[in-house]
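Data availability (excerpt). The following record was deposited with the supplementary files.
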Amino acid sequence: MNNSQTQSSIKENKKERTLDIVNRGLKRRYSAERRFRFYGLLAIVASMVFLSLLFISIIGKGYTAFLQTFVELNVFFDPEILDEQALATADYQGLVKKSLRDMFPDAKGRQDRRMLYGIVSTGASFQLRDMVLTRPDIIGKTAEVWVPADDDVDMLVKGHFDRQAGEGERRLKDKQLAWVDQLSAEGKIKKKFNTTFFTAGDSREPELAGIWGAVVGSFFTLVVTLVLSFPIAVAAAVYLEEFAPKNRWTDLIEVNINNLAAVPSIVFGLLGLAVFLNFFGLPRSAPVVGGLVLTLMTLPVIIIASRSALTAVPPSIREAALGVGASKMQMVAHHVLPLALPGMLTGTIIGMARALGETAPLLMIGMVAFIVDIPTGFTDPSTALPVQIYLWADSPERAFVEKTSAAIIVLLAFLIAMNAAAVILRKRYERRW
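Predicted structure:
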């Protein structure tokens, strides 16, 4: 009895020790799991905070670019200056200067008048020219015209310049400040919606610069990219997934496709420079070349996404189609491809969104050039929206800082819209098996 009691007590002690060890291990695992979840939540919160700071910084610097300061001038369209035989080349700048002199007759000296003329933008003369060419009957009359202010006046009105700084530390002199204050008191300075930002091309003058030329260039470039990359990528994915034999050559092709998806984008720019420009002699800084380069860059992404969409189609679909007498081509074209198409479109949109935000490959093929005119075709010299942002970010004027941030806001809006479209397509047409 004593031996049996002793053995049972030993067993119970072993069980208790084992349970204690298991319980301590469970506590450690539960604590580690809680810590891991806390670290994951902390990482998400930190990323959201940094992302919010980024958006707040960009929007805070760029939202003022959607407004533009305008000055009201009483312009007399002098028939002696506006020769009806040469209205397009008349001295419209002289009309602007005369109107300013009439408003501020105390500006007598050459230096004072030069400062006075600097209140309004040089684009005021082009605005008057367009008015006269559109309405020739205005010649000989006086009209109130709102013309864009100079970028320094615009920055002053928006509060980006310190009025209290010394005269030598700011771009506007004391007399110019007094004239601006007088115009403001008379209600002849207002901030209006900046339509020029959305309708004009690039310009050396910040108040006249717009993104429309870059947007059109990006559109033509993406059209070329989509027309070339989507059918080629889908055909390659269908062949590799459905028809290609499994051997070392197809394995090599698959490895290279996966590797190309991770190649830095500037490498594709160098390839485009060497092949499309130097070898084939295609026009530099043209959307057709940019589209070809971006096609090479997006092809691996779309191929990988398309193959994943094909793989997601259950084998039973293929077997059922073949079982009722369909050929392999009919099985792929009539059954597999339609079911995989939503996933392919999602991958294509994501690839196009990546192409829209690329800058480095376009810089290598010359799309960094200063382009004023709006492109009208695939071979016209043009730039793209990311490249336009790069150019403005390198400009020293304070007004280009808000232009840069505003262009980034527009680019982010396009990217968010494209990614949202991909999500909507996937949620609406995706079938779960």
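Summary of structural features: Residues 271 and 293 are 8 Å apart (CA to CA).
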